[in-house]
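Structure first, sequence second, as always.
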């Protein structure tokens, strides 16, 4: 472990400071304006791609970088370097899907889906593509939003799937339901081939996955993104993007099946039904984040306090907040911290290691010594506990000095 050092080359604008004057004890302290970083320094050659460009000036808010990416498929506003890297990967995936939609094979799929539709096309709704695009991503909600003609059956099938009741599913026996499940699997397979999160909140990516998967699925054609034929007999190579490290089960299991695994894990931890229900329906947690939170806790050994982390997840209001919570757990895992227990301090995820030290993971990009950061460093509920910060990003020299003066130790790889 070592203390984080500032890398000046990342800065595109200097840090400015002003003195804090609210009392003699703090009169000598100086605060900084949040740093502005350089895209070329942060991302290197990846700052410019074939279909996108990262805006050179990257402002920070004292914690996270706010990255703007202009692309052939729209502008993407990203909170954090990690999310920006995901968006770059997703932009490449969108490009591949757009290319697929221009192929002869795609046109054939459209033709077959119109001329010889399978049960799903006949029964889902008058506007099947529109209906599926508008549906929520959980299985139960997916079925309930299907057209009126199959709504009751679909609700029953959804409950059976979520309960893992294969006998009940067979009893419902709807070819329509099985076709819908097949389409769900087709979307997962498409996302896997592209190396993207199937539950990403990137709306353009989801629209392209929905459209391409639907046409191939409803046309009865296999979707293979390795190479496809285009007009004139030419070959269109569509190599997959870099994998993002999702567990294989994210692509192999439906949302209902993943939810069942989450419920079983939480029951094993002693969770009450109300907390399980709140976790599984939290609008701030994507299906991916929910599953990865469960897996991260498992990797940490499900220490005491794990359910407090789950409860915190249900109280958060924004997806960026739940992503931060997940990143915090994964940072503890990455640093191989041997935990005695997990703790929530206010809304802050923290841990006590096996030597009794308070460890606070900080999956941030760049910390500047702002009034908000100073207030955090000097929190009453942390006073005297000599906390250790696991910093994933960088700290300015002033923030390093400020944290040290407040009794903190900063650690990084």
């Amino acid at each position: 472990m070592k203390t984080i050092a500032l890398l000046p080359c990342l800065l595109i604008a200097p840090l400015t400071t002003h003195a804090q004057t609210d009392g003699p004890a703090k009169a000598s302290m100086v605060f900084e304006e949040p740093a502005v970083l350089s895209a070329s320094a942060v991302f290197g050659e990846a700052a410019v791609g074939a279909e996108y460009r990262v805006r050179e000036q990257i402002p920070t808010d004292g914690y996270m970088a706010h990255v703007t990416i202009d692309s052939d498929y729209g502008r993407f506003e990203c909170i954090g370097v990690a999310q920006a890297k995901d968006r770059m990967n997703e932009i490449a995936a969108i490009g591949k899907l757009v290319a697929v939609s221009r192929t002869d094979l795609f046109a054939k799929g459209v033709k077959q889906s119109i001329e010889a539709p399978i049960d799903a096309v006949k029964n889902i709704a008058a506007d099947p593509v529109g209906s599926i695009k508008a549906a929520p991503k959980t299985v139960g909600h997916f079925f309930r939003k299907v057209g009126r003609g199959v709504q009751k059956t679909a609700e029953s099938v959804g409950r059976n799937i979520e309960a893992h009741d294969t006998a009940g599913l067979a009893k419902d026996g709807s070819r329509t339901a099985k076709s819908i499940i097949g389409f769900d699997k087709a979307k997962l397979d498409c996302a896997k081939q592209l190396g993207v999160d199937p539950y990403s909140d990137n709306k353009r990516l989801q629209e392209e996955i929905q459209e391409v998967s639907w046409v191939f699925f409803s046309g009865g054609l296999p979707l293979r993104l390795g190479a496809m034929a285009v007009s004139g007999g030419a070959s269109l190579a569509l190599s997959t993007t870099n994998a993002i490290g999702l567990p294989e089960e994210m692509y192999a299991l439906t949302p209902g099946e993943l939810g069942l695994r989450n419920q079983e894990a939480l029951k094993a931890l002693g969770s009450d039904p109300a907390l399980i229900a709140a976790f599984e329906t939290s609008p701030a947690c994507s299906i991916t984040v929910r599953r990865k939170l469960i897996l991260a806790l498992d990797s940490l050994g499900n220490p005491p306090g794990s359910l407090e982390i789950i409860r915190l997840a249900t109280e958060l209001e924004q997806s960026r907040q739940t992503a931060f919570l997940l990143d915090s757990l994964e940072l503890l895992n990455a640093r191989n911290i041997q935990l005695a227990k997990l703790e929530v301090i206010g809304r802050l995820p923290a841990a006590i290691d096996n030597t009794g030290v308070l460890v606070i993971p900080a999956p941030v990009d760049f910390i500047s010594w702002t009034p908000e950061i100073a207030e955090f460093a000097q929190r009453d509920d942390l006073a005297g506990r000599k906390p250790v910060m696991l910093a994933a990003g960088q700290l300015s020299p002033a923030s390093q000095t400020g944290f040290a003066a407040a009794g903190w130790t900063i650690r990084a790889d």
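Margin note: The CA atoms of residues 1 and 206 lie 40 Å apart.
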